[in-house]
Design goal:
This protein is α+β, with helices and mostly antiparallel strands. It has one domain: Alpha-Beta Complex (Cyclic Phosphodiesterase, Chain: A). The chain has five helices and nine strands; from the N terminus they run βααββαββαβαβββ. A hairpin with a 7-residue loop joins strand 4 and strand 5. The chain starts with a strand and ends in a 6-residue tail after the last strand.
Length: about 190
C-alpha cells in the first residue's frame, strides 16, 4: 500500500484554490497539474507499506497529535521548488507554518520506531498544485513565474484531523482515499 499523512483541504476550498491557480495552468503545459479533488497538505510521505502496519501507523500518529490542538490556516502565495527559474514543483503556501512544522516533526519522530526514515529536508507547509513533467523551456518557466506573482485570495480552513491516506496509481493519475482520520485535540482542551 502506498501511504502518506496529510491534512485534507475541504472540498469548497479545494475548488477555489483550483480556480485561483488557473493563470498558472494557462502559463505552462510542461506541468502535470493536480486535479481539485486531490489537493492537500502532505505532512509525511510513507511510500509502500504493508497493510499490517496501518493500525500501528494510525496509533503512532494518534500519540503524536494528541498534544496538538485544532487550528485554522490560510493559503498565501504561489511558489515553486526550488524556484521559478528551474521549477520542479509548483505550490501554494500556508499560514501557521510553525504549527504545521511542529505537527509534521512530531509525526516524523513518532514513526521512526516503526522503521520509517526521518525526513531529511526541512518541512515547508504547502499545497502541491503541480509537478514539472520534464525539462521546462526557459520562456515557459518565466511565464509561469510571472503568473505566480499574482496574489491569490487567501483561503481559510480548519485543521481538525491528520489523515492517513492511501494513494492508488492509475492511468488517470493517483486516486486518494482516507484510511484513518486522527483527530487533533479540541481547541481550549
Amino acid at each position: 500500500m502506498r501511504l502518506f499523512l496529510a491534512i485534507n483541504v475541504p472540498q469548497a476550498v479545494r475548488d477555489k484554490i483550483f480556480r485561483d491557480a488557473e493563470p498558472l495552468r494557462a502559463a505552462s503545459g510542461a506541468v502535470k497539474w493536480i486535479a481539485a479533488p486531490s489537493l492537500h497538505v502532505t505532512l509525511k510521505f510513507l511510500g509502500e507499506q504493508g497493510e499490517s502496519l496501518v493500525n500501528d501507523i494510525r496509533d503512532a500518529v494518534a500519540g503524536a497529535v494528541s498534544t496538538h490542538a485544532a487550528f485554522d490556516v490560510e493559503t498565501t502565495e504561489f511558489g515553486a521548488f526550488p524556484n521559478f527559474h528551474r521549477p520542479r514543483v509548483v505550490w501554494l503556501g500556508m499560514t501557521a507554518e510553525t504549527r504545521l512544522r511542529a505537527l509534521a516533526g512530531d509525526i516524523d519522530a513518532a514513526l521512526t520506531p516503526l522503521g520509517m526514515a526521518a525526513e531529511a529536508r526541512p518541512f515547508r507547509a504547502h499545497v502541491t498544485l503541480g509537478r514539472v513533467r520534464a525539462e521546462i523551456r526557459p520562456a515557459e518557466a518565466k511565464a509561469l513565474g510571472r503568473a505566480a506573482t499574482m496574489r491569490p485570495p487567501r483561503r481559510a480552513f480548519h485543521v481538525g484531523t491528520v489523515d492517513l491516506m492511501q494513494s492508488e496509481l492509475g492511468a488517470g493519475g493517483s486516486r486518494y482515499s482516507v484510511l484513518a482520520a486522527v483527530p487533533l485535540r479540541a481547541r481550549g482542551t
